[in-house]
Specification:
By secondary structure, the protein is of the alpha/beta class. The protein contains twelve helices and ten strands. InterPro entries: IolE/XylAMocC-like, Xyl_isomerase-like_sf, Xyl_isomerase-like_TIM-brl.
């Protein structure tokens, strides 16, 4: 009698284990069978405030309110903070009220030297900003000085990591000039650590005759934030420098950003204003063009 009870308990326990393992296996298979699109997180959409720099200078709060009303999730700063330049906490409150996050900031290396490092970090940390991007440095396409840029980026990457922040670099056309059987951009990417953001400016990449999709795929996980901008080649006459009215294969780029690039932010940038459009009007059109591509996925 006692032996029978023991046997029954063992059978019951084994049954429970089998069922549990079966459920666990089903969960694993379900996860493994998910497509990359199902696993990936769709990036949020931001705007580089340089696109409307004059408007920001004239009316900081009014301009950001208009951008928020356009449906942007965030903004990328370019050095102008209106009346909040010495009060990041108040700026954060203002942005929160608009429902805007800070997707990043463009700052020169000088703002992260020994004299300014801690003040700069404290300011952007208060805004909830985790991406500090160097927008331009002539040394980055100088064969005698590119090593110094690589060293600066690697050093700052390590220094910012404990603060929960990352350093990055933003290209122009010149970074795609030939260098050591490749380009300056490739050299920079291959010699900086994987936490250094490669903020590809799609407009300048295409203007340089390169494929932005290829460059996202070439360096997986490195494009935490990407500038979605149009810079038409000089020989293109029948298109406009507006997202969706240009020559860029945006659907393929979006898929590459999401599935390979590790991209969290698509940053609309507008530096040309065709057909007498005002900057805010051009930004709105490009944003609408981008949203159409995102919604069609």
């Amino acid at each position: 009698m006692r032996l029978t009870n023991v046997r029954m308990r063992l059978i019951s326990m084994l049954g429970t284990i089998v069922i549990t393992l079966g459920l666990f296996g089903c969960g694993q298979n379900e996860s493994q069978n998910q497509s990359p699109k199902e696993k990936a997180i769709t990036p949020q959409v931001s705007v580089q405030l340089w696109s409307v720099k004059d408007e920001v200078k004239r009316d900081f709060e009014g301009t950001l309110t208009i951008l928020a009303d356009m449906g942007f999730d965030g903004v990328e700063f370019a050095g102008d903070f209106g009346k909040y330049s010495d009060d990041p906490q108040a700026l954060k409150g203002f942005l929160d009220g608009l429902g805007l996050k800070v997707s990043g900031a463009h700052i020169p290396f000088e703002k992260l030297n020994e004299q300014h490092f801690f003040d700069t970090v404290a300011f952007y940390k208060a805004l909830g900003c985790e991406s500090l991007i160097v927008p331009y440095d002539a040394r980055a396409f100088d064969p005698q000085q590119i090593e110094a840029v690589v060293a600066d980026l690697n050093r700052l990457s390590e220094k910012l990591a404990p603060e929960g922040m990352k350093i990055g670099y933003h290209n122009h056309e010149q970074e795609f000039n030939d260098f050591q059987q490749s380009t300056y951009w490739d050299y920079l990417a291959q010699n900086t650590n994987e936490n250094v953001i490669l903020q590809q400016d799609v407009g300048w990449t295409t203007y340089a005759g390169k494929d932005p999709v290829e460059y996202v795929k070439r360096y997986p996980g490195r494009t935490f934030t990407t500038h979605y901008k149009v810079k038409l080649p000089d020989d293109v006459q029948d298109k406009l420098p507006l997202i969706g009215q240009d020559t860029i294969d945006w659907p393929s780029l979006i898929e590459a950003n999401i599935s390979v690039g590790g991209t969290h932010w698509l940053v609309v940038e507008q530096e040309e204003y065709p057909n007498d459009l005002k900057p805010l009007e051009a930004v709105k059109i490009s944003k609408q063009g981008l949203m159409e591509f995102l919604e069609a996925r």
